[in-house]
Amino acid sequence: MEPDLFGPEANKTWFETYRQLRERAPVYHVPGTSLYILTRYDDIARVVRNSEHFSNQADRHGGEPLLLCPEANSIYRERGWPKAFPLSVDPPEHKRFRALVNHFFTGARLEASRPLIERHVHRLIDALPASGEVEFIAAFAEPLPAAVITDLLGLPHEDHADLKRWSFAWALPFARGLSREQEIWVAEQGVEFQHYLKRHIDARRADPREDIIAELAHAELDDRPLDDGEIISMIDHLYIGGNETTAFALASALWLMLRDPSVHDALRADPSRIKGFVEEVLRLESPTQGLYRTATRDTEIGGVPIPRGATIHMRFAAANRDPDVFHEPDCIRFDRPNAMRHMAFSQAEHHCPGSGLSRLEMQIAIEAIITRLANLHLAEGRNSFEHHPGFVLRALKELHIGYDEVTAVPG
User: Fold this and answer.
1) Considering only CA atoms, which of 178, 171, 229, 230 is closest in space to residue 67?
2) What's the CA gap between 255 and 401, in Å, rounded?
3) Which helix (H) or strand (E) holds 20?
4) What is the mean pLDDT of residues 104-133?
5) Banded pLDDT at 389 (limits 50, 70, 90)
6) Domain boundaries, the chain
7) pLDDT recorded at residue 58
8) Of all helices (H) and strands (E), which one includes residue 299?
9) How far apart, in whole angstroms, are the C-alpha atoms of residue 321 and residue 342?
10) pTM confidence score
11) Which of 17, 90, 33, 80 is nearest to 57 (CA)?
12) Which DSSP string do the residues of 43-58 spell out, in sequence order?
């Protein structure tokens, strides 16, 4: 019996499907396609670390592009800028582009964003009803990371509705299998987003400010200014990466914490466990279930022949529950010794540049939530715990929580 990977109900049984594939066909060739699904940690680690044999640039090696429809691609070329991912290109170009953005989300620069995150966290908690129930995703999980990356980039908060629509369109092609009409809509939204960003880039060139867009507008690569297409592509990548998956992970964190009250009690008793809990949430409920590479030559993985041009799908969420790597992989362990080996943010040179920001937002948010929402619990009879259908992303549709009181900010 073939596994159900793409059906509308597939996400209800992902983890059992991963277990079966790891045991029976860890390198699974989807019949009638050039797609190979990897579910074993060691196989995925080999691919993700070998850009020479497994490229992140499908168009260079005969792989399948994200947009198949010629009309969709022409919309980018003729009305905007060709769709590009400079932060995801193969080495050696990759290192040069990533050097322009990595410092935004690491070290002292990351720590400097802590007060901004705390302000948004407490602002959102203050806006909750004084007691009762609330739908957590709409009230907190989505607006928090969107507000943070909007501020860091220097975009206006009043544009939130447009930015949310453009974010959805940007991520949609990664699900694959879009219709012609869907691809054209994606391209139209993408070009609209491009021109929106171009206006902000032009404004920073005329009147520099202290934000990420301003820095990229005046940045140089190999002693030359970045061109508009490069800057636009980096900013749109940072914006989407800076909010969508963190929102999914925050919702999963509340769900995992409250479905087992002992987890909530343990975190309240010892907030130092929050850091380890965040890593377990990312491992167990990876918001990005997997990403793609293209074989640059005839090769093999796990003894399975892989032809040049084949699409390799690295199923990070399966690797994160591989029992050969993670002891008791389906359990939350605050002190898991190899917790940081999970692949929720990928690994190696294509590791998500915003992973540090996402972790920090989750840590600050969870500590504030468990401190300020008294008697926090899942709302009785209000949750189905269903996830949005989709092959790449894992996101709860809604999460209703209840509490007795919103307490004051400590201190």
Assistant:
1) 178
2) 9
3) helix 14-24
4) 96
5) confident
6) 10-406
7) 81
8) strand 299-301
9) 9
10) 0.95
11) 90
12) HHHHHHT-TTTEES-G
